[in-house]
Design a protein that fits this description.
alpha/beta; Spore Coat Polysaccharide Biosynthesis Protein SpsA, Chain A; 3 domains; ten-stranded mixed β-sheet; 20 helices; 26 strands
Amino acid sequence: MRIEPIAELARHRWVELHYSSSMFDEPVRPIIRFVTAKGDTITQAMNGPILGSARWVGRIPDRTVSVWISPTQGNGPFAFRLDSIRPIPRATLARRGLRSPDWLYWAARSRLLNSRREAWQALKFATSGTAMGSYAQWRAQLGRPIDLDGLDRPRSDWHVGPVFRLILKFKGDDLDRLIATIRSLRAQVYPRWSLYAVTDETTPPVLLTEFRHEAADDPRFSEMSLQEPPNLLATNLNSADFVTLIDSGDCLPDYGLAVVAETFAREPGSELIYSDEDCITPDGRLADPILKPDWSPVRQAQLGYLGRLAFLRSRLITPDRLRELVVDENGTIDGVCREIPGSAIRHIRRILYHRQSPATGTPLPGSGRLAGGCDDSSEWPEVAVVIPTRNAAELLAECIDGLRDKTDYPSFETVVVDNGSTAPDAVRLLQEIAATPRMRVLQHPGAFNFSAMCNEGARVTAAPVLLFLNNDIAMLEPGWLKAMVGWAIKPNIGVVGAKLVFPNGRLQHAGVVLGFGGIAGHVYRRLPKDYPGYLDQLTAPHEVAAVTGACMAVQRSKFAAVGGFDAENLPVDLNDIDFCLRIAEGGWSNIWTPEAALIHHQSATRGIDSDPFALYRKERAYFVERWLHVIRDDSYFHPGLSLYAHDVALA
């Protein structure tokens, strides 16, 4: 979709775009693409309209001649509307930037160095993102009512869609909360649903009386007992139905069931569908949004993040499992997830459930941890540690000492790939390493090419597991390599990354987010090393789109299957992320684990680049063109979250 007239937009510098999409479309991040008179193309991911609308703030590049927006990446009908374009004065930007003086300083510094895109990016970090504590205001600004005659016109026939069987569990004895739940269900624009209240001798009489009063005039309401076979529900089910739990006091937005029905119509192979949620505070406000990743089996086993609203296909629900679901929701869902393929589990990236519970913002705990690692030391495979280096003898010596003295892995060899070191202390150290058993030095002169050096180091070894390590890594705990290899040797796992911290103890790497900062980047950067992360994600291993090449483990067979690192197109920048994405294309999941924690001095060998957008222009252009479809849609980082906030914030 092209924005016209372009002169009206190009005369501004910084603008805010407000846009809307159908509630029944997948709320992926739209892509905005600028073309300049010089022929440059600048592409950025926008924010996903998860509440029906969204906004994007950005800089219009100088001499822009055309602007395009790609609202969706799927086939089929979609609805999208650009609601407004509002210029942002410099004074307003400056006031917003004062919230992040460090980024404001970096923007000014980059501008003085004539690194314009770096300055724009820094200013975006300074001015973007809404704190989680301001969720109510964010929701008020971006939420909109359902518009069934316009943008949200149904795509399927709701008269023959699935029937949603909601099982109501009574919680507490607050009558007003029960009434709120019933009202939210009766307000549903999708008509095909029924409600079954679980009752027994412990049901508060005031709630039971009210429910029976409501049921007297509504045939969709029924009672069921766990002490008897739930024949009423079981006999009414058919293969197109879905079953879910809801607690008294919890509510759904009026479009909630309609969104699920349209999702199923679009993806009829779905067996389990789950959505995002938030919490209702005691004073009736909505708070603590729980914006979940797409299906992540490791994270589910570790943290049990699915929560509500989770719909199970009726064919999965036997009478015994129905009782189990009511008594042990998380355990039942875990069991179902192990039975069905991951492709049958569908995440709706919209908030369809308002939970009446303590405002923690944390999903329900999982039923059990999925461990990495081997059971016996005799099972640990041989590892080849590949270390690209050039000069920096002090750093390399610390890394080698850590491998020798602070690593308890039973069997590994080390290959140091030297890119023409000339410093006398580095030359002496390399000679010592070459004379050390199970260590070798491989000479790789010429222009610095990280990808080629890693590929060459892997080629000269036969170890079944490869560990790529920067020369500026230092070890903290001896078990780090076992923690990584234990995950890497699992058949479904691809690349494994570690928790890296700066020498001052602040986080440097906790996984890579696609689209972050424009292309890809590290969320949680410079936060305290024990920071738990959004929804406690940093407390346990979990899936990520990519990890840094500073410390990554992968089985040789998987490395070879994708052809290793791309030395031709990505010699220095983005090669590690590209490798991870090709591994994911091969069907493997990439994992970040806090079980392996190390120190990373970062870029100590090649330095900090003053203008990476200019220095790596060719590499970044190639990467964006190759991976645009995933840059806009990191399945492990919600489209309602900001791509310009290191401490996770709302977009």
